[in-house]
Structures are given as structure tokens and as C-alpha cells.
Model the fold of this input.
Amino acid sequence: MTETSSFSQVVGLWVGGFLTLCVFSFLYKDNVFYKLAEHIFVGVSAGYWMCIGFWQVLYPNLWGKLQAGDWRYALAAILGLMLVARLVPRIAWVGRWPLAFMVGIFAGFNIVYTMQAQVLKQVEATLVPLWGNPDVATTLLNWILVLGVLTGLMYFYFSVEHKGPVFGTAARIGIQVLMIAFGAAFGYTVMARVSLLIGRVMYLQDVWIKTLEFFRG
Done:
């Protein structure tokens, strides 16, 4: 913290440090300080994303288009106002029409997106050469990938009982593959949370505590 730092910056840093400690207080037990930080976080996040949604989405894509003379967006404005009707119980049914449009369009869009991103791309990623690779490691990894996918799929094939040397063995291997995948996903989540923890600890150590120099100076 330098001597040229403004008082408002120092206050902001102390508020951030105080709220960080309030969140860490949950490690002891649920208390009023944690609830205070939780409510502030939820409220500020809701207000922030509301402003972002208005100024970066609603204003340029609706009001800006209407100002430019593109009156096709008047229909979107009408549908948006119809959504607000849900706040009035007597005419709440009016909001069902734009909601139906939103659900239908969102579902149709995500069907295409999901097929492309989570089905076709996943299938394409398993189409790897099993022979003729430049090194043995690549060939081994490709075989592990293909066999892991096949055994994982066979575990979910319930038309045949999971017994015998083929389906029984494949189903058991598929379970192990799934457990490894779930463990990796869980480990990634834990590491992401640990990264957030490290960031807040570094904030307390390298930023918040150094604000004491502001008052000493």
C-alpha cells in the first residue's frame, strides 16, 4: 500500500478482508458473521448481474435496435412486458405465453448445442488410430481411451445380464473407468476450491495486512 492510496481504497480493502474473515469463520461453526457475508454476497451478485444484463444485453439489443428503427424488436419488448405481468396475480396468466416461447427456443437451441458439443465431439474424440502411431505411448493411450469408452458404455447396456467372461468382465472394468472419471472430476473441483482459498489467503497476507502501512505513514 503506497502513501498515494486514497482513503476509499483502504476502506475497500478492509471491507474485503473483513468479509473474507467472516466467510472463514464458518470453519468454526455457523454464525452471524458468516450469514452477513453470505447475504451481502448474494445481494451484491444479484444487483451486479442485473446491471450487467440491462446495460450489456437488454439496452443494446432492444432499446438500441428500436432507436435504430428496427421495429421487429418491438415484439420482443412486448413479450418482455408480458413476463412482468406475473407480478400481478389477476393477470399472471399473460406471462405464460412469453415463458413458453423462451422454454421452446431454449430447448431447441440446446438440443443442437448438446448434440454438437457433448455427443458428436465426444464421439469424434474417441476416433483415434490404434495402429501406426509414431510412438508406443500414443498407441497405448489410444487403446486405453477406446477400451475405457467401450467398457463404460457396456456397463450401461442392460439388455444383457452383466455375467460371463465378456459382459461381466467388461461391466466390472467399466465401473472402474467410471470411478476414475468421477474421481478426476471431483479432484478437479477440489483443486479449484483450493485455488480460491489460496487466492483469499494471499489477499489477506499480501494486500489486506499491508494496509496497516497506510495508517502508520
